[in-house]
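TA notes, week 10

Several of you asked for a full example with nothing omitted. So below is the full record: structure tokens for the whole chain, then the designed sequence directly under it. When grading your own attempts, check the secondary structure regions first.
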């Protein structure tokens, strides 16, 4: 039973079959789980733990997004679509200034839509390729996608199960401000461009309370918690 303030599974909407195993964890089937949540909730930490318990490595969409912006064809199309707003985006080394790009697109829904129209197809294709690779690992039982914008991008059909990582705003802000280059204004601006967290929570199959230490005990990710036992 989950208790307020306790790090771990809060509730579950999944249907369980005989033996307590969720329908997406049937023998011989490698399921795909998605992890979402607010900025600073600890999504990546949870994704790593869940992936390791499932015999795979997590697929990090943020890293793929950075990789996308290094592709010559993507850079050229981003600059073309942003038009006059792209002035000063290209650095002397030929790479895009991601900080400047973020300031631009997260203050303009129109510019953000233009950026995502270029990067999202590239990222989605790489995610599918990496899912296939992870599924081929010996002993793999589960592939985990760490994709903050999975719902915003319309990729819900890429996963069998969606996990929402929950943490209070104050906790998340404290974590974010400990990261180099982040400010409260940046945090609020980027989160304001996403689907409200209350909606994401309701759209998810499970909620994991990560309001305690972000690097909590592995006990919270044990097989009995993450796979077999429904929470009351």
């Amino acid at each position: 039973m989950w208790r307020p303030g306790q790090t771990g599974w809060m509730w579950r909407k999944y249907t369980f079959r005989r033996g307590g195993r969720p329908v997406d964890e049937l023998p011989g089937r490698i399921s795909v789980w998605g992890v979402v949540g607010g900025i600073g909730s600890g999504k990546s930490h949870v994704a790593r733990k869940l992936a390791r318990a499932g015999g795979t490595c997590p697929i990090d969409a943020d890293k793929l997004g950075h990789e996308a912006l290094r592709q010559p064809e993507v850079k050229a199309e981003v600059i073309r679509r942003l038009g006059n707003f792209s002035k000063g985006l290209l650095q002397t080394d030929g790479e895009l200034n991601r900080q400047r790009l973020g300031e631009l697109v997260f203050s303009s829904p129109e510019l953000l839509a233009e950026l995502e129209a270029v990067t999202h197809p590239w990222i989605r294709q790489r995610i599918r390729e990496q899912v296939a690779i992870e599924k081929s690992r010996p002993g793999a039982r589960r592939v985990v996608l760490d994709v903050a914008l999975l719902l915003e991008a319309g990729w819900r059909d890429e996963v069998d199960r969606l996990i929402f990582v929950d943490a209070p705003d104050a906790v998340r802000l404290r974590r974010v401000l400990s990261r180099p280059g982040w400010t409260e204004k940046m945090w609020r601006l980027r989160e304001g461009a996403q689907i409200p967290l209350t909606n994401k929570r309701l759209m998810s199959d499970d909620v994991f309370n990560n309001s305690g230490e972000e690097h909590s005990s592995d006990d919270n990710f044990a097989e009995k918690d993450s796979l077999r036992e429904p929470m009351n």
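Residues 1-7, 11-21, 214-232 have pLDDT under 50 and may be disordered. Use that as a sanity check on your answer.
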